[in-house]
Amino acid sequence: MVNHMKDNENNGNSRIRILTYLMFFMFAMTSDAVGVIIPELINTFDLSMSQASAFHYMPMLFIALSGLFLGFLADKLGRKITILIGLLLFALASFMFALGESFYYFLCLLALVGIAIGVFKTGALGLIGDISTNSKQHSSTMNTVEGYFGVGAMVGPAIVSYLLITGVSWKYLYFGAGVFCLILCWLAYKADYPQLKRSSTQDINLASTFRMMRNPYALGYSLAIGLYVATEVAIYVWMPTLLLNYEGELALIATYALTIFFTLRALGRFLGGWILNRYSWQQVMFWFSLAISLCYLGAMMYGISAAVILLPLSGLFMSMMYPTLNSKGISCFPVDQHGSVAGVILFFTALSAALGPLLMGVVGDIFGHVKYGFYLATGFAFMLCLLAAYNLLRDPSGHLLTADAK
Predict the structure, then answer these.
(1) How far, in Å, CA of 169 to CA of 153, rounded?
(2) Which residue from 183, 19, 155 is spatially nearest to 88, judged by alpha carbons?
(3) What CA–CA distance (Å, rounded) separates 257 from 349?
(4) Which of 150, 187, 221, 244 has its CA 20 to 30 A from that of 392?
(5) What is the rounded distance in angstroms from the CA atom of residue 378 to the CA atom of residue 374?
(6) C-alpha–C-alpha distance, residues 321 and 228, integer Å
(7) Which residues contact 306 (CB under 8 A, 6 or more apart)?
(8) 42-86, pLDDT tens digit by residue?
């Protein structure tokens, strides 16, 4: 009887994991296709780089606000209701892209998309904690989740590229995402979610989220993730523009540079569990952040021809950074606070994803070329490496990440 109950629980957890993987896949299809859409927007609406970058930072800004102000809903209302609310909002916004042609109309819809993502993503991140038995399993699941995100990040730009080549509007990407989202809503509604166990009698509300903002571990991991995200989004937002007019002997690689980046990032994330089982996560974070820094430095020192190779290659080393840092940051807290802490981390994640490319666009406009924005991104990469070195030497959160800390 006990074995039968455990089998049912494992089957239920497996279905929930698959649902979570598909949610992140869908999210990535739209968010990581921005780099391919931006050159089209610049031509269609006669925009500067700073103006066009709003197509990226608008949803990221509202993801940040949603994570901060609505992240507690995952702990208060439960994971299932929170995820359903977020998915339904996302589907509504996606279908509404077909109703307008104005750049500012699109930005308003992207704000709604950001709110929706912030809601269902904090619910999904809390859910991962519910079905993980320890910090190590949490990190492994997060790497797999981000692996599916990486696949979606390849599919989205590929779909947009095909649509543009065939003369079809990029807006159909959002229509397809809306249909996919309705399917996920049905699967989420039918799924059985584990019961959330409370370890605290404190009220769960917006005030509890702001109390979390003062926690040094939540802030420390948020800073590290923020620096990583600013380094990563530089690639998929601005690399297509950086390589747009390249005509050297590596032109074929330049054409598919973004696809190569996403492919290497996805492959690395699926290998994440294997690597983390053989080396300490502190060592992996340091050596991989150092490799990312050197890729950026080499690209800036040796010009566009080197950037064609080194910037996509950095995706392999970026693969495990975000899911591992995110997992460790969340695992520092009890399960019934995972929604709130995920909201705080998501706030800084999305804020960085919004401000990083915006600042790169501003720097590029001031100095006349997008490559100057990549100098800024190189600085972000080295700052992340310094934090990883500190974590390797001091391990400040090690006492919170034991197997029974959850």
Answers:
(1) 19
(2) 183
(3) 24
(4) 150
(5) 6
(6) 7
(7) 298, 299
(8) 888 888 877 887 887 889 889 989 988 998 888 888 889 999 999
Task: List, for residues 92-151, the tens digit of each pLDDT value.
Answer: 999 999 998 899 999 999 999 999 999 998 998 888 888 877 777 787 788 788 888 878
Which string of DSSP letters, residue by residue, matches 166-234? TT--TTHHHHHHHHHHHHHHHHHHHSPPPPPPP---S--SHHHHHHHTT-HHHHHHHHHHHHHHHHHHH
Inter-helix orientation angle 135-165/34-45, to 10°: 40
**Terminus-to-terminus CA distance in the chain, angstroms?**
27
Q: How far apart are CA 354 and CA 362, in angstroms?
A: 13
Q: Are 321 and 289 in contact (CB under 8 A)?
A: yes
* Rounded Cα–Cα distance for residues 125 and 85 (Å): 15
Handedness of CA 55, 59, 62, 68 (dihedral sign): negative
* 8 Å CB contact between 204 and 60: no
> Rounded distance, CA 28 to CA 271, Å?
19
The pTM of this model reads 0.79
d(CA 185, CA 83): 8
Tell me the two tokens of residue 195: 């019961």
The identity of residue 141, as a single letter, is T
Provide the token pair at 380: 């972000």
Residue 342 neighbours by CB under 8 Å, 6+ apart: 67, 71, 74, 121, 122, 125, 126, 330
Query: What are the helix (H) ranges across 271-337?
Result: 272-276, 281-302, 304-318, 321-331
Q: Which sign, positive or negative, has the C-alpha torsion 113, 115, 121, 124?
A: negative
pLDDT at 402 over 70: no
Question: Is 258 within 8 Å of 313 (Cβ atoms)?
Answer: no
> What domains can be seen in the chain, in order of their start residue?
8-193+203-394 (1.20.1250.20)
Please give the structure tokens belonging to residue 203: 């009220």
How far apart, in whole angstroms, are the C-alpha atoms of residue 58 and residue 314? 26
Nearest Cα to Cα of residue 184 among 88, 94, 119: 88
